[in-house]
Amino acid sequence: MEIKENISLRKYNTFGIDVQAKYFASFDSIEQLQDILLLPNFQHESKLILGGGSNILFTKNVAALVLKNEISGIEVVEEDDQFVFLKAGAGIAWHELVKYCVHHQYAGVENLALIPGNVGASPMQNIGAYGVEVKEVFHSLEAIHINSKEKVVFTKSDCEFGYRESVFKHAQRNQFVITSVTYRLLKKPKYNIAYGAIAKELEVMGVQELSISSIAQAVINIRNSKLPNPESIGNAGSFFKNPELPKTQFDVLKMEFPDIVGYMNEMDKVKVAAGWLIEQCGWKGYRKGDAGCHDKQALVLVNFGHATGTEIHNLSEEIISTVTAKFGILLEREVNIF
Ligand code: FAD
Ligand code: NAP
After folding, report:
1. What is the pLDDT confidence band of residue 37, given thresholds at 50, 70 and 90?
2. How far is the CA of 322 from the centre of ligand 1 (A)?
3. Residue nearest to atom 35 of ligand 1 (CA)
């Protein structure tokens, strides 16, 4: 194994921010990871675990050992009449896993097609899109505890999943390296096309009979038409979470702003579209230097070329202040700031 020094992280984050890592190593097995964690010279270095870098904003050089997870492999570990249990290495690209499931007719992740990043990060924020969250197909995960180097299994309840949340963003933050995730997929699909533009896109595609692959393709088409491709414009998807408000607060706002976009959730709160709030404050399509706000979805902050992480972060601060001033809602960042 090789520990590199002073490595640019530009190609390792989808914002394309050019900062340096003090130390950098990649690993493709649990044993290799444990060997790195046992190296005497690095025992006291902080560690930063990196997947695809698609939910990260670097605002400064990283004074840590960056560990790039490249554990591969997808295998069926169990199946019965109803379910297939699929174990995937944390370093597999999420969309590769979706393609594998579509190909084998395993249902449950088709609405999550084309989300960037890797399997290992999928439980971190309980990735979600188009009415589906990964917790719905999550079975368990294996992780290595960074300090003890021991392997630990997390069940679904251990992960404390919430809306774009898990225990790994809170009590267990930076404590574990997730090495594999096991998903429980359906053999008989339960289609979910009620959300957003999926039904309309299926109509445009001329789909007569629903299938896992047609839904995945509809999601891919919508995403390609709306979201900036990080290969051409740096971004990390939605920069902020959609805030969840008590219904009473939402009703008051609705009187002042009749067009406000909100959806009731299972917790009897109203999830407000943060993109709408940001757009109303005039940020959609905004650009200052190379930092900006996407012109098709204001929730996505972008790097047009050479913006620094601090410039993007400063823009997010300005957005938070204007949204607070206009709506009395405090936006929370979804992207992990380092
Ligand atoms: P990284 O950015 O590398 O890491 C994210 C966090 O997880 C960091 O704190 C990191 O330290 C930690 N981490 C990563 N891997 C591990 C591991 N193996 N063990 C322990 N900790 C780890 N997200 C959604 O939920 N829904 C979407 O629809 C969506 N759409 C997106 C669209 C675009 C264009 C982009 C750029 C991003 C989008 N995202 C979306 C955000 C992002 O893709 C997901 O959050 C994804 O799961 C991040 O994966 P990653 O491997 O890139 O994680
Ligand atoms: P959209 O369809 O324009 O919808 C705007 C917001 O309204 C979304 O954030 C979504 O919340 C919510 N919404 C829409 N229809 C809903 C319904 N029927 N019930 C409940 N909530 C509804 O959003 P978009 O920007 O094009 O994104 C489409 C999907 O991809 C969304 O699910 C979004 O979360 C996901 N996405 C996520 C990221 C990320 O980085 N996290 C980036 C791009 C896209 P939800 O966000 O809760 O779904």
Report:
1. very high
2. 27
3. 237
pTM reported for the whole predicted model: 0.97
Q: Chain-wide mean pLDDT for the chain? A: 97
Beta strands in 3-127 (DSSP E): 4-8, 20-27, 47-50, 56-57, 62-69, 74-79, 83-89
Residue in this structure with the two tokens 């601090």, named with its chain if needed: 310
Site of tokens 């370093």: 91
Phi, psi of 154 (to 5 degrees): -110, 125
150 is annotated as an active-site residue: no
Q: Is the CB of 126 under 6 A from ligand 2?
A: no
- For each of the domains in the chain, give its residue range(s) and CATH number, in order of start: 4-69 (3.30.43.10), 74-186 (3.30.465.10), 234-337 (3.90.78.10)
Q: What is the dihedral of CA 82, 116, 8, 232, to 10 degrees?
A: 160
Q: How far apart are CA 75 and CA 84, in angstroms?
A: 10
Which of 49, 52, 25 has its CA nearest to residue 39? 25
